[in-house]
Request: fold
Amino acid sequence: MVEEGDRSEIGSSDQVNGFPNSFPSPRRRSSSRNNSPRSFSFLSPTSFDTQFPSSSCFLTIHRFFRRKGVRTWWRRRAKALVIVSAVLACFLMMNWLLLSRIQDPIRGIEFRTLKANSSTYSNQANPKWHGKGKRPHKTIYARLLAKASHALAEGQNKPEPKDLWVEPFVAASSWRPCSDQLKWKPNEGKNGYIVISANGGLNQQRVAVCNAVAVARLLNATLVIPKFLYSSVWRDVSQFDDIYQEKHFIEYLSSDIRIVKELPLELQSLDLEAIGSVVTDADIIKEAKPSFYIKHILPLLLRNRVIHFVGFGNRLSADPLPFNLQRLRCRCNFHALKFVPKIQETGALLLRRMRQNTLFSGPLDRYLVGPSGEPKEKIGNEVEKIRYLALHLRFEIDMVAHSLCEFGGGEAEKQELESYREIHFPVLSQLKKTKKLPSSEELRGEGLCPLMPEETALMLAGLGFNRKTRVFLAGAQIYGGHSRLASLITLYPNLVTKEGLLSSSEIQPFLNYSSQLAALDFIVCTASDAFAMTDPGSQLSSLVSGYRVYYGGGKMPTIRPNKRRLADIFIKNNTIEWKVFQDRIMKGFRQTKRIRTRPKGRSVYRYPRCKECMCHVTK
Reply:
């Protein structure tokens, strides 16, 4: 494009926009012919500047057509060429604007949230985003993001692919929950007491509780209501009865194990560490088999009458495990652990606002929020159901630092993540200094790096979710802060978090309790019409997807990306065409929707389609 100030040079140049400047001047026509209805007169430079003051390329076209030797055939079509050129210029300008918006995404972006008691979107102040976010990230995916933005704009009114919001119903619906059907003699718990102190966040603690229930039954021990350790990462003092209904937990499992709230007085005064009754994760091998507990833990329990598991987590194997013990773990996870009314009520409020206050309730609502999720009025047929997608973007600083990957932040990012490793992952930090570890490129190629928000946005666009899709983002403590999410927000402006859906007074009771906030995310993700994860190995994603399988009745699809396959697609971001990108994304997505039973050795919390948890009904 020639700028306004360069027009004086066009006439004296040897070439104009690639055309030679040596054409003879065209003949002058008689005035009578010029006034003929069939005649065509070019705009003079003066009139051209008046009508197109900022487009010097049209001036170049005009001067070209004034040269001698240009055929009349071209003159008659000059107007058409001018119009086509104008349309092309507008198209290029729009693409440039889209690209610049992606590359410098913070400018002009407004985070859209729901009013506290409204069903419509409004532009409010952004919620609090965690992470430094010192500067907008210049993403390597600018080209693909611009193509995605253009595709979403073009397909705004087109229907989405049919299989985005559904599972293969016939195959999925043939599995029904049945872990509540367990009949055996109650455990008297006469061999002693088991105390556990679970570490980690909400989801790690949940797994620890269910494993402790199974171990208590295995050892014929009485379980004391679990304690939750305070973590320097999670910084939450919440205990069991702050999150789960204690009475329901005790009563529901009363036919399986004996549960008490506290140790007997005579045992409370014992120095458990002095008598050797404190057992840490270092004392138990990972995925320990039942025989380990019978051989090493039961003698201690019989001798001291009490065992305290400190940091007890993933310390019970998935296989081999007796049928009834495996079913007991399912009973605990899917039936015995119910959130307290405070969490249920706020969770129900979030669900109503994600559905724009329609009176519909989802198939999982009653298991997640109890009576709080029941419609207050009768629903008419004319009410349209509002669907939403829940997204768990596992891009918190702990995940990012532990991965040893790089994410485009340069030297400042490397130093920040290394400082975090030295504090929270000292062993990993030391290993990085003493051994040659795989490079970031190698890790990414193997699918071992967390998906960046930009990659997640491209994945959703490639799958066909349209721009109007309502997206709930779980977590929101994204590394890099709001600037890191800019590409995702640009493509999906109807993206919200619990912080944006709730008023300050509604979220205030949960603000300093990360596990209770995680419980709200768990509810909204589990009840969503479609759930997308970015890290299939994360505890929240595993528990949410398993819960959706168990209670979903074959109607609750989950998107599980193959990160290695995605890495192979993203590495071609500078050359791949959007249609090819979409086809490859969709192919991988459809392969993950196959209905499979639990693989051997895998968690029943994530894969409940097994005879211990669910019953396969053949029609």
Observations:
- The CA atoms of residues 7 and 381 lie 65 Å apart.
- Residues 78-103 form the longest helix (26 residues).
- The chain has a mean pLDDT of 82.
